[in-house]
Amino acid sequence: MEKRYFIRIAEQLVEVNKEIYTLHHQTMRRAQYLVERDVINGLVYYSSLDTEDTTGEDGIPDKTSLTVEEVVIQNIMIEKLNKSLVLLNQSEMDLINALFYAGYSEREWASKTGIPQKTINDRKRRILDKLKNLLEK
């Protein structure tokens, strides 16, 4: 009489051949071994922290997002910067817009306006110092 092999699937015993039976039990033993190793090494799964209302993964902090405090500080600084930019004269605003908003390099803006690049660099530095002083008030 030939030996019969069964595996449990969804609370039912299903007859399988020896090859499938062996493969199934090797896979189950491997999974059990990995869990045992995790326990020995003190590994904790976030899924073990699941509750009815939340999953353990919900507790993982998002290092890329800003905190409430950082958002508030950023908004205050943006507001101060906007108030300071209004105090610049038109030529200063044109230079700031070109370099920081339109994306021109100093060299590109120099060739477009005919002003030497060194002069543009000096003006930019003076304008940034002026803005820094205004922001520190």
Walkthrough of the structure:
By secondary structure, the protein is mainly alpha-helical. The protein folds into two domains: 5-59; 68-136, Orthogonal Bundle (Arc Repressor Mutant, subunit A). Helix content is 59%, strand content 7%. It is built from five helices and two strands. It has helices at residues 18-40, 68-85, 90-101, 106-113, 117-136; strands spanning 5-9, 12-16. A two-stranded antiparallel ribbon has the order 1-2. Strand 1 (5-9) and strand 2 form a beta hairpin. The model has no long low-confidence stretch (mean pLDDT 91).
Indicate the proportion of strand residues: 5-15%
Distance between termini? Answer: 95 Å
Give the CATH H-level superfamily of the largest domain. Answer: Winged helix-like DNA-binding domain superfamily/Winged helix DNA-binding domain
Helix content: 55-70%
Sheet with the most strands: spatial strand order: 1-2
- Total strands: 2
State the low-pLDDT regions, or none: none
Task: Enter the CATH topology name of the largest domain.
Answer: Arc Repressor Mutant, subunit A
| Helix-strand pattern | EEHHHHH
Determine the mean pLDDT. Answer: 91
Inertia-based shape: elongated
Named CATH architecture of the largest domain: Orthogonal Bundle
Whole-number tally of structural domains: 2
User: What is the gyration radius calculated from CA atoms?
Assistant: 33 Å
Largest sheet: 2 strands, antiparallel
**What's the CATH class of the largest domain, please?**
Mainly Alpha
